[in-house]
Amino acid sequence: MWPYLIQWQVMSGRKKSPLRLAPITPEACGVDLRLDILSRLPFFDGLSSVALEEINRLFRDHGYLAGEAIYYAGDPADALYVVAAGRVKLARHTLGGQDVLLDVLGPADFFGHLTPATGEGYPDTATALTAACVLRVGGDDFRSVLARFPSVALSLLDITARRLLESQELIRQLSADSAEQRVAHALLRLSEKLGEPSEVGTLIQMPLSREDLADMTGTTTETASRVMSHFQKQQLIQSGRQWVAITNADGLRALTEAE
Amino acid sequence: MWPYLIQWQVMSGRKKSPLRLAPITPEACGVDLRLDILSRLPFFDGLSSVALEEINRLFRDHGYLAGEAIYYAGDPADALYVVAAGRVKLARHTLGGQDVLLDVLGPADFFGHLTPATGEGYPDTATALTAACVLRVGGDDFRSVLARFPSVALSLLDITARRLLESQELIRQLSADSAEQRVAHALLRLSEKLGEPSEVGTLIQMPLSREDLADMTGTTTETASRVMSHFQKQQLIQSGRQWVAITNADGLRALTEAE
DNA sequence: CGCTACGTTGATCGCACTCAAGTATAGTGG
DNA sequence: CCACTATACTTGAGTGCGATCAACGTAGCG
After folding, report:
1. Which single residue of A88, A141, B150, B193 could bond A58 by disulfide (Cβ 3.0 to 4.6 Å)?
2. Given the DSSP bridges, would you call strands B132-138 and B79-85 parallel, antiparallel or unpaired?
3. Which 3 state secondary structure label does DSSP give A190?
């Protein structure tokens, strides 16, 4: 009756979430993790441990509950943030009340302002998707780091340029691809970034609703749901409430590459 | 009969293009212009004239005819380009043969690779929209400049981050706005960048076809044409073959802000 | 003056949005 | 452990925006 469910939870009769998100405890935000995270940041690569510890002292850590906002669009602020643990999403809001999900971030990803203060507020809203620990450094402090360690600036430039290229690819997709292709693409991107092998396939390790997917791909929850049902019937994915696993990445890729 | 044409060319009976594009002569690419352009680049701000001349020697100039490609998507290349004169467009192509116009550049704008060579080719195609003069610097040479003048890297980072924010705003628009709103937005952006006062309103100083507009906004030439006709009847713009002038920017802005 | 590419406008079609009802899941408290 | 509830998800029917196909003006160039 549900042939596509055979591999998974037939006996219990229930389809429970296979998501295993590491619990974020208060200690998770401690100094040990901080140094570890900072040293894993691609743009602090090659810095001496002395320099790193010095930089570390400029950061302040802060924990967030799932769903809590880190900053809102329009907040007058000038700081750089680094995800230490958990998941964070960046979104823009439209006048019509609709949301556009720009990016999902995990440990060692950064966000916020990294350019000189313009006086303008943030253009987007940052929200903790799961319980999360986030490090924050003030704009002036970070600019002093950039000035003292030119390699950091070069590395940041590199990453930012790459993000620009990625967002241009998204523009291309939104302009030219069908809803189904865009959803397939979003799933593949998330899978590359947050995917982990599991008994149900490559599981995307984050709570991911149909609405999130819709906001990532410029469609509606209903359309996202229909597309996901379709994928499930084709054995490309398995999915339930707030979770998605990819069982046939090549099949999805073929869809995105079809004319 | 054409009430919206009254302000313009009633006597001649003909609606000729008001575009006045400065002719690009071979000498336009000469050394004098080059130093002038380089000194106007925002990221060379504050450099000594000695340093500028030294940097200048790293660049090579090249002229292009209207419509000529500067590089194609996929070309294995590692260089930074600066527009000295004329207009250049950046576009991505889809498998379906469709184009997506990402940006239009004028004098002192830069494009191409500005990050370490990844071995990948360009993701987009750069084409001269008008006769153009373009300066080019090899990746290694430019990286040596970045290493020697940290302020250049900081400034580049600033500009790149700003472009990233702009492209995210475009993503929001493509996800959430109607075709009419997207066209209105595109016209306003072009007008801010390339607009010049003229007898017909703020004239966008570049050849701009309905197809270009469609490729900028993710629609078709037919839809772009319909939207433009509509705008013209509402006295928001005046337009003809390959040219557009804005007569009521506030009116257009009101459309983009409507829910 | 005629050719070609650009632009306009109309008719039709289809994908995805909207509105609406119903089902499954996971967390809550008994 | 199980009912209860809130929220996510699913599915259907109808609609509309914009794409597609097609035909016809029109500007500008040689």
Report:
1. A141
2. antiparallel
3. helix
Distance in Å from C13's C1' to A251's CA comes to 29
**Half-sphere exposure for B259 (CA within 13 Å, toward CB):** 4
Nucleotide with the nearest C1' to A220 CA: C17
Q: Which residues of B touch A259 (CB under 8 A)?
A: 95-96
Distances (CA, A) of B7 to B13, B150, B184, B208, B248: 12, 52, 22, 21, 14
User: What phi and psi values does residue B53 have, to the nearest 5 degrees?
Assistant: -65, -35
Question: What dihedral do alpha carbons A98, A103, A107, A109 form, nearest 10°?
Answer: -130
Contact B176 A257 (CB under 8 A): no
Instruction: Note if the pTM is more than 0.90.
Output: yes
In whole angstroms, C4 C1' to B241 CA is: 14
pLDDT digits (tens, 9 = 90+) for B46-86: 899 999 999 999 999 999 999 999 999 999 888 999 999 99
Q: Which positions of chain C lie under 7 Å from any protein Cβ?
A: 6-11, 15-20, 24-27
Among the residue ranges A90-99, A199-208, B107-116, the one predicted with the least confidence is: B107-116
Phi, psi angles (nearest 5°) of residue B58 = -80, -20
Closest CA to B211 of B96, B107, B106, B98: B98
